[in-house]
Amino acid sequence: MFDDVAERYDLTNTVLSFGQDRSWRRSTRAALGLRPGERVLDVGAGTGVSTRELAHSGAYAVGADLSLGMLYAGKRARPEVPLLAGDALRLPFADASFDAVTISFALRNVNDTDAALRELARVTRPGGRLVVCEFSTPVNPAFRTVYLSYLMRSLPAVARAVSSNPEAYVYLAESIRAWPDQSALAGRIGAAGWGRVAWRNLTGGVVALHRGIRE
Ligand SMILES: C[S@@+](CC[C@H](N)C(=O)[O-])C[C@H]1O[C@@H](n2cnc3c(N)ncnc32)[C@H](O)[C@@H]1O
Q1: Which 3 state secondary structure label does DSSP give 3?
Q2: Contact predicate 182/199, CB 8 Å
Q3: What is residue 43's predicted lDDT score, i.e. its pLDDT?
Q4: Closest CA to 215 of 187, 198, 192, 199
Q5: Which listed site, 4, 39, 74, 78, has its alpha carbon 20 to 30 Å from 53?
């Protein structure tokens, strides 16, 4: 599915999120608290748009993704970003290789969420940081109703105009609706080897940043 959306992925994201994706990426970088020279892994990096944002911190940022189509599109758009083929469930890195790991809008897409969270912990050094940036549940009930209507009705219609594979955006809407809310996801992160788990809502909870420390 991601191979098919790769070509216009970056543009479609920005249109469907009303440009909010850029500020969500900046907040993810800030939440990681990266220092120059640290090593950070961006899992489910896709076209590397999330990885490039991390590199602005001065840390060494590398992206890994399962879709060769996304990786090729990323290589063309931003050849300076290091991107590797790799499965979130079996990362091609030794234990404790990274000071920090992150996954943006991709944990929802991995087949086994809990196994992916454990695998992220495996490649992070003790005391290292995790930030999960993912769609979540808006906290205000009135806004939640409006948002869910946008998600299920307008978003697929807009995607038909801009995306190379509109069907993928029907899946996007459905997968967001089925995803655990902030508190449930925090519990799963805590059960997968991460301590001091907390979250912060962005755009009223449309997106949540969950963080944890490798125990
Ligand atoms: C919505 S994109 C997010 C890309 C990027 N992180 C961003 O913020 O724009 C989700 C990505 O997760 C990747 N993905 C899904 N399952 C994966 C897995 N098991 N291992 C690695 N990447 C995976 C897809 O190939 C896709 O590129």
Answers
A1: helix
A2: yes
A3: 98
A4: 192
A5: 4
Instruction: Give the model's confidence band at 170: pLDDT under 50 very low, under 70 low, under 90 confident, else very high.
Output: confident
Distance of CA 22 to the CA centre of its chain: 13
Mutate to test the pocket of ligand 1, among 32, 65, 165 (most ligand atoms within 8 A of CB): 65
pLDDT tens per residue across span 182-196 = 999 999 999 999 999
Sheet strand arrangement including 98-104: 83-85, 60-65, 39-43, 98-104, 124-135, 207-214, 194-202
Triad 8, 87, 38: Cα angle to 5°: 90
Instruction: Provide the whole-model pTM.
Output: 0.96
Most ligand 1 atoms within 8 A of CB, residue of 1, 2, 20, 164 to mutate? 2
Q: Are 205 and 214 in contact (CB under 8 A)?
A: no
Distance CA 4, CA 95 (A): 33
pLDDT digits 0-9 by tens, 35-54: 999 999 999 999 999 999 99
